[in-house]
Specification:
The chain has 255 residues and is of the alpha/beta class. The chain is built from eight helices and seven strands. It has a single domain, classed as 3-Layer(aba) Sandwich (Rossmann fold), CATH 3.40.50.150. Strands 3-2-1-4-5-7-6 form a seven-stranded mixed β-sheet, with helices on both faces.
Length: 255
Amino acid sequence: MDEYEQINDYYDRDQQLREWYRTPLGNMLAEDEQAELDAILPDMFGYHLMQIGSMAAPLLSASRILHKFVLDGESPQLREAMQIAGAPEQLPIQADCLDAVILHHSLELVGDPRQLLREVERTLVPEGHLVVLGFNPLSLWGLRRFFKMRRKVAPWDQKFLSVNRITDWMALLGMEVTHTSYRFFRLPYGHKGLAHQFRFLESWGQRWWPIFGGVYFIVAKKKVSTLTPIKPRWRPQRSLVRGLSDAASRSSMNR
C-alpha cells in the first residue's frame, strides 16, 4: 500500500468511526469522553492546540487555548472547526510549535501508531501536552471486539492498544505520563434501558476495577534533556502560519 492509499484508508476508517459516534452507543460514549476532556483541557495553556481523529470542535470547547484546529481530510462535516489536511503519520506541521495535541482514537486507525507518536513529539514544544483517547482491550469493549472484529465494522475492527504499550512507546520518546484515567464501565450496548439498568457499574468500576473501563485517557508531557538548549517559545506569528498553510497546501496537492 503506497502513501496515497494509506492516507485514504485512514480517512475512510476515520469516517466510519465518526458515523458510529452517531449511534446510541456512540452518543453515550461521546458524552463520557467529553466530560473527561472538560476536566483535563482547562489545565493546558499555550497558543496552538491540534486534534487528530474523529469528532470535531466540541471536544476542544473546554480548552483555554485560543487557536484550535483539527487535522482532517477536508470533511464538510467538520466545517465548524478550523481544519488542515494532511497525513497523521507525516504531519504538515513545523517542529516545536504545538502546545497540545489530542489523539482521539487515531492511534488505532493509523498503520504505524509509533510513527504518529514520533510526529506528535516532533511538533510539540518542550513541556507541551499530549492527550490520547483509546479503546481499552482489557475491558468488556475488548471482549465484544473479540467476537465482532471479523465483521469489519467500526469500532470493533480497530486495533485496540493497551495503556502499557502506549506508555512504553511514550517513554522511549522521552515523554512523561502525568495522568491516566478510565471511563465507561457500562455494557458496550446502545439500548438506553439496558444502559440505565447497569449504570451502577460506573461507580463500581471507578472504585473496584478502574483499569477495566471501556476507554482510557493518557496525558503526557514532552520532556527535554537539561543538556539540550530549549528554543525560545516566542516566534513571529507569520512564520508559524506560513509553515502550517504551506505544508497543508502541499499535502492537499499531493492527494
